[in-house]
From TrEMBL:
It is found in: Cytoplasm. GO terms for biological process: cell division. This is Septin 4. Residues 1-267 form the Septin-type G domain. It comes from the Eukaryota. Belongs to the TRAFAC class TrmE-Era-EngA-EngB-Septin-like GTPase superfamily. Septin GTPase family. Keywords: Cell cycle, Cell division, Coiled coil, Cytoplasm, GTP-binding, Nucleotide-binding. Pfam families: Septin. InterPro entries: G_SEPTIN_dom, P-loop_NTPase, Septin. It comes from Macaca mulatta (Rhesus macaque). The gene is SEPTIN4. GO terms for molecular function: GTP binding. One of its GO terms (cellular component) is cytoplasm. The record marks 116 as: Important for dimerization. Its main location: cytoplasm.
Amino acid sequence: MVAGESGLGKSTLVNSLFLTDLYRDRKLLGAEERIMQTVEITKHAVDIEEKGVRLRLTIVDTPGFGDAVNNTECWKPVAEYIDQQFEQYFRDESGLNRKNIQDNRVHCCLYFISPFGHGLRPLDVEFMKALHQRVNIVPILAKADTLTPPEVDRKKRKIREEIEHFGIKIYQFPDCDSDEDEDFKLQDQALKESIPFAVIGSNTVVEARGRRVRGRLYPWGIVEVENPGHCDFVKLRTMLVRTHMQDLKDVTRETHYENYRAQCIQSMTRLVVKERNRKYDQKPGQSWQGEIPSLALGETKPYFCSSIGPGLNLSGCWSPPSLINPFLPLAN
């Protein structure tokens, strides 16, 4: 997922990362149209190949984020989309056919930070605090070619300090094993020190020193996208596609998804216990109408029992699915 206000080069960077044009048919909105625009969620699928391994990635974009005058809670559609993917996976995991589950969970969110300011804005802080328990956030310092190298270093330090100050939990790179070679350890240390990644995106091929490279041509020279001395583009792509893709998926599965799953089960437990207490409070022979929990967090479905005998027997009424077998005695 890529998120951030318009004009920070999200689309260009995505096209640069995967050497494609995902936004060929996109229509650029005028000022009047942007006033009425709300945050949208758009998905694009791309097939890439790395060292003989074919990968199919889904890129989720969030056009309209941060573009309004009043951006209060504009991150809610993004958080709801992430929760919806967790809910769908939870339902599939609880079903009968669990062998071929399609995993559409968001494993990484690239959040673009504007270079035109002094660190994080209030919108940046609120967005990351709202989503850091749901997804792996990787902060991106956009349009690094608008800053000098000393300015990039100062801004990176400032952003890291503010992330720590506000208690934002961004994606943490795992520690290297002791038996790893020195080159890998140096590469891993360089990745950790590069947060936030200062990137430059370009889909234009220019000629520099007799060779053709992707970059941007300025009156004072050429900025090369894939030159490690100019930006962190190569480090970001290496991290996403080669070295840390599996770890991003593992953190999503073991931490973010498990937290969501635990909340769902706790909510279902509370609802079942609540209905059990209402059952015993009901008088014999009196009709009883209530609600049952579904697999979605906090969602309920109505049901009705026509009569309750002297023994308060609820046979023939709803019983929980096999996912919550410990609660079956409560329903019987």
